[in-house]
Amino acid sequence: MGFGGNNGLTDFKDILGFDLRRDGTRDALFFLTAILLASVYLLFEALTRSRFGKVVIALRDAESRLRFLGYRTELYKVFIFVLAAAAAGLGGALYTPQVGIINPSEFAPANSIEIVIWVALGGRGTLAGAILGTFLVNLAKTYFTTALPELWLYVLGLFFVLVTLYLPRGVIGLFSSFRAGFSGDAFPA
Predict the structure, then answer these.
(1) Predicted confidence (pLDDT) per residue in 40-63, tens digit
(2) What CA–CA distances, in Å, run from 82 to 45, 47, 51, 78, 87?
(3) Measured distance CA(32)–CA(47) in Å, rounded
(4) Which terminal residue of the chain has fewer beta carbons within 10 Å of its beta carbon, N or C?
(5) Distance in angstroms (rounded) separating the CA atoms of residues 52 and 136
């Protein structure tokens, strides 16, 4: 059927008539990805700070209480799901031409676990934490998959355990603690 079976979709040579092997096309895709990341971040940050965001935070913390107050929580959940799916779809649409292949192994459980570790390492409950965690884990992945390829998944698991035990708010939480210490708010009364 043209989907490549276990090999997936391969051999991407052009996108919208632009040759993917040219440096200019690759650079443009990289900058487009960075612009999309910044745009989605700003959109989600604005949504989080809005009245809608306050309702979503209340939904996360006490859904039954929010439902008791008369909110239709399922509508908020569906909207959030659709928004997240749209952002993920845009990310996937930019990922595939840059890598040149998409195959079923991209949907392996290890990749889903890696995403959870991005968020845990960067900082749960923050948008910037997820982005920071993504950069840190992928930087470590680049190093450890060449230095210790057989042990990479164990290193990833160790990251998750250590972050969960010693940095429950992630790296962003560590920065927040340092900033609070410098401003004198480390130990509020």
Answers:
(1) 999 999 999 999 999 999 999 999
(2) 17, 14, 19, 6, 9
(3) 22
(4) C
(5) 31
Q: For tokens 């900033």, name the residue.
A: 179
- Name the pLDDT band for 172 (thresholds 50, 70, 90): confident
- 105-130 pLDDT per residue, tens: 777 887 888 888 888 888 888 888 88
Q: 11-19 long-range contacts, Cβ below 8 Å, gap at least 24?
A: 11/100, 11/101, 12/96, 12/97, 12/100, 12/101, 15/97
Place of tokens 């200019």: 24
Non-local (6+) Cβ contacts of 104 within 8 A are 6, 8
**What gap in Å lies between CA 31 and CA 10, rounded to an integer?**
23
Cα 83 to Cα 38: distance, rounded to the nearest angstrom: 15
* Maximum alpha-carbon separation in the chain: 66
**Which pair of tokens denotes residue 184?**
């004198």
Structure tokens at 57: 């935070």
At 8 the pLDDT is: 61
